[in-house]
Amino acid sequence: MSYATVETEVSGLKVSIETGRMAKQANGSAIVRLGDSMVLVTACCGVEMSESDFFPLSVEYIEKTYAAGKIPGGYIKREGRPSEKEILAARLVDRPIRPMFPDGYRREVQIVCTVISADEKFDADVLAVTAASTALCLSDMPFKEPVAAVRVGMIDGQLKIYPTLMETQTGELDMVVAGTEDSIMMVEGGAMELSEDKLLEAILMAHTEIKKLTALQKQLMSSNGKQVAPYKVPEVNQDLVNAVKELAGGRLHDASFIGVKHERYPAVKALRDEITEALKERFPESEKQIASIFSNLEEEDIRSTILNTSTRIGGRGLDEIRKITCDLDILPRAHGSALFTRGETQALVATTLGTKLDIQHIDNIQGNYDKSYMLHYNFPPYSVNEVKRMTSVSRREIGHGHLAERSFAPVLPSEKSFPYTIRIVSEILESNGSSSMATVCCSSLSLMAAGVPIKTHVAGVAMGLIKEGDRIAILTDILGTEDHVGDMDFKVAGTRDGVTAIQMDIKLKGLTPEIMREALAKAKDARIKILDTMSGAIPTPRKELSDYAPRISTMTIDKDKIREVIGPGGKVIRDIQDTTGATISIDDDGTIQIASSNRDSRDAAIKRIKGIVAEPELNAIYDAIVKTVVDFGAFAEYLPGKDGLIHISELAHERVGRVEDVLNVGDKVRVKLIGFDRMGKVKLSRKALLE
């Protein structure tokens, strides 16, 4: 493989692709660079065809800390398991390239994306899609055609390709679009209640720039591309196909269109088992082929029925949403909880409110930041009636949680107005289509039930597509089976005013802007209907927090006083927390948060802190405690940590012979601050308050 590099200009920025210098023993490799961000992607494949009934593709995305001139934190000074950011980036690469392999290709393929240089401007995740496609196009694997991706942002109402990291964080749109020269393959992003028309404009603008990047790849292929290695796809036995089709007859249609999932799946399986048993002598050792043929027949029947009759599984119409129920306060001790059921998909969501001490600290190669809002999505095997080993969180769970999490960014209150750390946990109890969008709906209900002052409800719906030639059917609120047999999985979340999150995966070529516009319009109609149902359950956030949620008060002190509140080695602040039961956090700017589920506890902590930072005021009256008694008077603590002298002459109007005749250690005494001595020490008087 000879060294070659090509470049083009995208949105005024130079993007280059090189190959033939690094990782030359891989089947294919490429480096894509934007600014000083560079990602190296390698593509390797196994020698033998796998026996699996699915395409064994794996994608890894690795951020090396040296790329940003950093050393990893922690005890072990090397990169460890993938972060959530790396997992999300790997999924971003996987989704547009997976459909570009031919049906039946079963060699194991591994894509490794390594960020080898990272600047402070551009994220390498979107570059990895283009680099992965280039590596595959230059390899000897049967990759259909080049794929590329760009990020689209919107700053001050203006769309921009390749926005900087800062512009992405502060802008109104963060969306990645991937596609080929003539088709959109994937869309993933979040938006600040953007209109459907503006989203479509952004997608089409992105596709214009994608064409430049696919052209670069073709340029490299002409000089450095390898000849595709021969591979064998198992031949279909037409006699076996005819036999399965004859035995299935109309019974396959009847079984696969049963409306209830736990009745449909067993009925379909029973028919498949019956056909397999009937054909085992005539076609020995053909169980896998029969299962594949049977699955293809089922897919063809479902697709043709939808296109010919506009009738879906269970008799639903194309735009019909399954029955929805919303229940609140399911969990008595959670700060907010809800149960959302849509057909046979059900989510239980709990909202927990924490303090600043519960913030998640994120460390990545392009900067550290704190996260005070998080949404976690769990998909246990029982939700689909399966038995699986339950280990660490899956990549799918991380991806679905991220999509739901970004749906709420535009409606959450500011940290200043609502100084809580918010954690949302979604437990999928049943699943038959779009559990991520059920999570969005249920999270909105749970947030309002918790009293989080979100701007408005957010709802989500998954759209599908069946396309054969010029005939199309857009499906609203798709089932799991409709997702499997369809050509598009299009999830849209948002409010009544606009879209807040979008995820689209396409399995076919030739998706026109008109189809996308219609799908977005139908998704909006469905979203409004769902929002109406949700508003019926709880129209606005509750005014009061749960009795079990912490009460947080915020106060600001002079930065010079922070040291006094903390005390040597944290002694003072620990004492306040231990004695009051409150949780206290202090920022460098002097902002203090005091949290407690008990109002008296919180008020006591506030009083202690105010006493520590308070300055002595002339003529002010204090409730003091005698700390020391001496011959000439008593020293009393009038503010936490601050003592003043009550001279023996200021104890009473009459002459006092012994201080102990009036005050003793531990006595509480009301005093007035009457002045300061030459050293600035406080002079207190009991006599001044006596009649």
How does this model look, in words?
The chain has 691 residues and is α+β, with helices and mostly antiparallel strands. Helix content is 30%, strand content 31%. It has 15 helices and 29 strands. The strands form 6 sheets. The protein has an 8-stranded antiparallel beta sheet with strand order 8-7-9-10-21-20-18-19, sandwiched between helices. A hairpin with a 2-residue loop joins strand 3 and strand 4. Helix 1 packs across helix 2, helix 1 (84-97) packs across helix 9 and helix 5 (238-248) crosses helix 7. The longest helix has 29 residues, at 196-224. It is elongated and about 120 Å long. The model has no long low-confidence stretch (mean pLDDT 92).
Low-confidence stretches are none
Radius of gyration, taken over Cα atoms and rounded to an integer in Å:
33 Å
Percent helix, as a range, is 25-40%
State the end-to-end distance.
102 Å
- What is the mean pLDDT? 92
Strand line-up of the largest beta sheet? 8-7-9-10-21-20-18-19
Task: Count all strands and give the number.
Answer: 29
- Shape summary: elongated
Return the structural class.
Answer: alpha+beta
Largest sheet descriptor: 8 strands, antiparallel
Number of helical segments? 15
Q: How much of the sequence is in beta strands? A: 25-35%
